[in-house]
Amino acid sequence: MASDTHEDAATRRRTVVTAGHLGQVSVAQTALTDPDPEVRAAALGALQRMEMLGAAELIAGLKDPDPITRRRSALLAAQSEDALTELRQLLTDPEDAVAEVAAFACGERTDADLETVQMLAVVAVEHEDSLCREAAVAALGSLGHPAGCDAVLAGCSDRATVRRRAVLALAAFEGTQVTAMLTKLTQDRDLQVRQAAEELLAIELGEQL
After folding, report:
1. Which CA distances in Å does 3 have to 13, 41, 85?
2. What are the start-end ranges of the H helices in 32-129?
3. Per-residue pLDDT at 3
4. Using an 8 Å Cβ cutoff, are 96 and 72 in contact?
5. Do residues 106 and 144 touch, judged by C-beta distance below 8 A?
6. What single-letter DSSP state applies at residue 24?
7. Residue of 13, 14, 132, 186 with fewest CB within 10 Å of its CB?
8. Using CA atoms, how far apart are residues 85 and 26, in angstroms rounded to an integer?
9. CA 63: distance to chain centroid?
């Protein structure tokens, strides 16, 4: 019986995905209340494809009880001008995969404000999952808000995968602390970090000539 239910959900999901390509708005809208989270996620994606995803539907998706739907909604929110408040609330989502995508999406938003930057900074420094810290550091670099600089500098002392993101994010900032950190990172034990730091320092020195 469980197998049949799974197959039915898979069929419904395919129907919704197809609807997004065929312009069948009503099919996608109906699927927003489907009992299966993957179908609901597909419905949101289909509406986005048809440029029919409204703020109310996106907000509902960001607040969905299932992380599958919340994660897809966060990804879609990266391309939206709506629901910034609800998106950044997912930075504290109990599911790491959701928080990671929310961090990425916040970095893609052109309307990200100081509160968003401050919340990203907390994730970058304090989150237990390194993928979330990576995503937050990268987002802070993408936004380039001065309030995010300290968190990016802190990321330069994290594990190698985070340091690789952090050193690249430093390109968005300037100042003596940034220059000092780049100089320090030219001696990093990770090759990618060293190379990135050397390249950024070379660019900085070239601009000063």
Report:
1. 15, 20, 38
2. 37-49, 55-62, 67-77, 84-89, 96-108, 114-126
3. 46
4. no
5. no
6. -
7. 14
8. 28
9. 16
